Amino acid sequence: MTTWITICDTCKRDDWEARSPGVTDGETLAELIEANAEGHAELRTRRHSCLMGCARGCNVAIQGPNKLNYTVGEFEPTQEAAEAIVGYAALHAQSDSGQVPYKQWPQAIKGHFVTRHPPLPSDD
Predict the structure, then answer these.
(1) What is the Cα–Cα distance from 69 to 113, expressed in whole angstroms?
(2) May I ask the CATH class of domain 3-117?
(3) 121: which DSSP letter?
(4) pTM beyond cutoff 0.90
C-alpha cells in the first residue's frame, strides 16, 4: 500500500537565509527526500506549504490509508535526514497498521517524532 511523504516546503531554521539565500530549508529537504524516494514504488512524495510546526522545522508527515500516521520534525535539511525519513516511510508502507517496531527505525529519525494520528474511521 502507498505511503505518502508530505514535506513542508516553507520550513526555515534560524540561519536559513545565511546558508542558502532564497531557498528555504523545507525546499532543500524536499529535494533530498524526493531524490531518495525515487525507485520506491510504494512511496509517493508531495510538498505542502506550511504544516504549522514552525518551532520544530523541518516537518514531514508520513501517511497511509487505514494506518497510523505520523508527523516528524526538527530536522536539518541533510542527506542523512532524508535517508532516514525515506527509510522509515518504506517501513511504514510495509506495515499493515503503519506501526514500525522501534528497533527497526533508522537511527537518524529517532527523537524526531512530533505526533501520531490514528487512522480516520470508515464511513460505514
Answers:
(1) 11
(2) alpha beta
(3) P
(4) yes
d(CA 28, CA 23): 7
Task: Report the distance separating Cα 43 and Cα 92, nearest Å.
Answer: 10
The DSSP bridge partners found for residue 6 are 46, 61
| Range 98-122 average pLDDT | 95
What local confidence, expressed as pLDDT, does residue 124 receive? 67
Q: CA of 121: how far to CAs of 66, 76, 95, in Å?
A: 8, 34, 18
Q: Parse the chain into domains and list their residue ranges.
A: 3-117
Q: How many CB atoms are closer than 10 A to CB 63? A: 22
Looking at the predicted structure, is the pLDDT value of residue 55 above 90?
no
Q: Grid coordinates in use for 64? A: 497511509
Determine the number of helices (DSSP H) and then strands (DSSP E) in the chain.
3, 5
pLDDT in tens, 20-39: 778 899 999 999 999 999 99
Cα–Cα distance list, 68 to 24, 27, 97, 104 (Å):
29, 26, 6, 16
